Amino acid sequence: MISIEDIKWAESSHYQDTPYDAYGDQGTPEQKKTFRPIGINRNFETHILQIRNDVPAEIAGVQWLAFGPNTFNSMVPFYTNVTTTPESFQTTPKFNLNKIFWLNKLTAQLGDTNYRVYGELEDAFEQKSLAQCHKIQHDTDKEVKGLSGKELQDKLNAANQLMADTVYNNTVELLGQMVDEGHGLMTLKYDLLD
């Protein structure tokens, strides 16, 4: 069975652990540019449509969604039997840090400057976010048994909002960790011991 995490890993590929990885220690500069990676900076969004067969039809449809470069984002399993999209996951063409798309673009841009430093932070963020979303989804699946119509949609809207808020807050936390970690790596710096 192929998991959502397997698909996300493939969609985020930059040829990890090969001579073709632009972030890796292997390979020559020419090899690192031989193949175009999937998880590049021009990714706008990635989605995985899932129809689950182990739950009632009313909650079977899930759209896993992530905005921005895949190497630096996390998938969110939004229920599809809903009437609204969480505000932070609505897009806008202008830079706005209240939108997950722009926040992910910022973490990706910073992360790209030194993947060795920021890669582990991003991996931890993604694992934490996925685990939290899986738990919310699991709990919601149980809570909505027997519900239908507007009552069901209201619960699913609330679960989607909770997952969006969770991933948004985790992304803000990631950005803060990246700034803290990277501050000491700046070229333009001065220390009293210099």
Automatic annotation (TrEMBL):
GO MF terms held by the record: cysteine-type exopeptidase activity; dipeptidase activity
InterPro entries associated with the record: Peptidase_C69
Database matches in Pfam families: Peptidase_C69
GO biological process, one term: proteolysis
Taxonomic superkingdom: Bacteria
EC number in record: 3.4.-.-
First-tier enzyme category under EC: hydrolase
Protease listed as a keyword: yes
Protease as UniProt keyword: yes
Recorded catalytic activity of this chain's protein: an L-aminoacyl-L-amino acid + H2O = 2 an L-alpha-amino acid
Keyword line: Dipeptidase, Hydrolase, Protease
Secretion signal, residue range per the UniProt entry: none
Family: Belongs to the peptidase C69 family.
Protein name as catalogued: Dipeptidase
The species this protein was found in: Lactobacillus acidophilus (strain ATCC 700396 / NCK56 / N2 / NCFM)
Lineage summary: Bacteria, Bacillati, Bacillota, Bacilli, Lactobacillales
